[in-house]
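Weekly modeling sync, notes
Attendees: S.R. (lead), two postdocs, one rotation student

Agenda item 3: backlog of single-chain predictions. S.R. asked that every request posted to the team notebook include the full sequence so nobody has to chase files. The rotation student volunteered to paste the first one in as an example of the format we agreed on. Action items at the bottom.

Example entry:
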Amino acid sequence: MKNKLISLFTLSFLLIIISCSQSTRLTDVYTDETFSGKEFKKVLVLGLTKDDWKQKVYENEFRSQLLTHNIEVLTAWQELPKGEQLNKETFEKYFKDKNVDAVLVAIEGGESTDKTLYTAGSEHVHVGFYGFYASTASFYHNSDYLAVEKVVHMRTNLYETNEARLIWSAKSQSYEPENTGDVIKAVSKDVVGELSIQGYIK
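Predicted structure, as returned to the notebook:
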């Protein structure tokens, strides 16, 4: 009975750690150190997804985050005619006279599954390989436990429009999201926060 209670306690503790872990993180961050332009005032947001409704969700969430930094924001789903893709020609056609400083592109990246096996016995266990969990800790348990997490991937790129070059980029990984809205809310908040730290926006 005592062993069962210890096992249940350990399992509950592991689940608490996993549930409290950071749900979204940015990786592979690229910053163009040579860019010395001023703060952006007007940004066009473009979501690249397989589904039109997801594009709207992506663009609207980034718009909401950017608006909190007093940025004027345009969304591609509202500005581009249906069927038109954003390229050099369409940008000049639809946005040349709108004084757009930068284009923020949010790209859908698919899903993967992450598994961590906790083996029986008393040992020093690394909680996940990502590193943003509670580093390492000693756990005592009496049965093997396999933790499985769904991971949703995205990439976000920021281009300045004067020379049309990439000045900032990052991948993002969201763990166990409830839905697409949860993913893009977390990612847009982290990305816009990072852009503010870098000085691209206020």
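Discussion: group reviewed the output briefly. The two ends are 59 Å apart (CA to CA).
Action items: rotation student to repeat for the remaining queue; S.R. to check formatting next week.
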